[in-house]
Amino acid sequence: MSVQDDATAALDWATAREQELVAEQATAQQMRRLVEAKMAELQQPKCENRRAQEREVPDQFVALRIANLNTELTEVRRVRSLAEWALAPQEV
Predict the structure, then answer these.
(1) Fewer CB atoms < 10 Å away: N or C end of the chain?
(2) What is the pTM of this model?
């Protein structure tokens, strides 16, 4: 494969992966809102399930997932940028 073929393949992969990650981020953000709403509901004085109030694991899990998605998205965008640079016409 030529450098141009490699760069095109990398660009195609990065573009597709970026779209997947953006969709996963949207889902994770929805999960975060759902968890926050549920945690707020559990904070109400009428809530009898005090053990559930102490569970912060879902919130921490969602926050960690979002952070990981952000990191991976940054790396994918770097790959895409490098591939775009490799495919750009070279000035002499």
Answers:
(1) C
(2) 0.74
Q: How far is CA 90 from CA 3, 31, 87, in A?
A: 13, 45, 9
The CA-atom distances, in angstroms, between 33 and each of 21, 28, 30, 40 are: 18, 9, 5, 10
pLDDT for 15-34, tens place per residue?
999 999 999 999 999 998 98
CA distance 76 to 13: 9
Distances, alpha carbon 81 to alpha carbons 26, 43, 49, 73, in Å: 23, 45, 50, 12
Phi, psi of 11 (to 5 degrees): -65, -45
Which of the four pLDDT bands, split at 50, 70 and 90, describes residue 59? confident
Q: Cβ(79)–Cβ(10) under 8 Å? A: yes
Radius of gyration of the chain (CA): 21
